[in-house]
Amino acid sequence: MEKIHIICVDDEREVLESVAQDLELLSEVFTVELCESAAECLELMDDIDAEDDHVAVVISDQVMPDKSGVELLTEIAEDGRFKHTKKLLLTGLATQADTIRAINHAQLDNYLEKVWQPEILQLLTKQLLTRYIVEKGIDYQPYVSHLDAPTLFKLLQ
Fold first, then answer.
1. Taking a C-beta distance cutoff of 8 angstroms, is the pair 6, 56 a contact?
2. Cβ-contact 155, 130 below 8 angstroms
3. Residue 7: which residues within 8 A CB-CB, separation 6 or more?
4. What is the pLDDT of residues 119-145, one digit of tens each?
5. Which fold has domain 4-156?
6. Which residues are registered as beta bridge partners of 60?
7. Does the keyword Signal feature in the UniProt annotation (predicted)?
């Protein structure tokens, strides 16, 4: 089975731990990584790529020191190695301009406001994982119990 990563980025440790807890079911099959900065995320992505593993989803906060979530997700979108990586902006402080910039430049796949409902974060993440696996041509069978069935059905038609 291929190693597929979900990376969560937030400068607040409590928020990261909350996201990790909400994604705990997915961590049975996927590797959930926690990063406290954009720089840490980018370094981890380089390491994952060097191992020929997959970065399927990046969930990023918007307001962080040094580099915003939109800046991070834009950098990821512009890196050809991660063109299929799905991006979710998770924030309570993004302005409308930030959101528009994220959609236009970071090729944002989804947006979720803080405070989120765990089941919504789980569903969105499953949908993004499903899209990534199908788009990359990865055998979905070993992961099927952790993917979103309606999304999988639509993509396989």
1. yes
2. yes
3. 33, 34, 35, 41, 44, 45, 55, 57, 58, 59
4. 999 999 999 999 999 999 999 999 999
5. Rossmann fold (3.40.50)
6. 9, 89
7. no
For the chain, what are the domain ranges? 4-156
Q: How far is 28 from 14, CA to CA, in rounded Å? A: 21
Distance CA 96, CA 84 (A): 25
Q: What tens digit of pLDDT does each residue of 11-34 get?
A: 999 999 999 999 999 999 999 999
Helices (H) and strands (E) in the chain, counts: 6, 5
**pLDDT confidence tier of residue 6, bands split at 50, 70 and 90:** very high
CB atoms within 10 A of CB 49: 14
Please give the pLDDT value at position 57.
98
Residue 104's alpha-carbon distances to 74, 75, 88, 101, in angstroms, are 9, 13, 14, 5
Q: Are 60 and 75 spatial neighbours (Cβ–Cβ below 8 Å)?
A: no
The Cα 91–Cα 73 span in angstroms is 13
Tokens linked to 28: 């049975």
Q: What is the DSSP letter of 109?
A: -
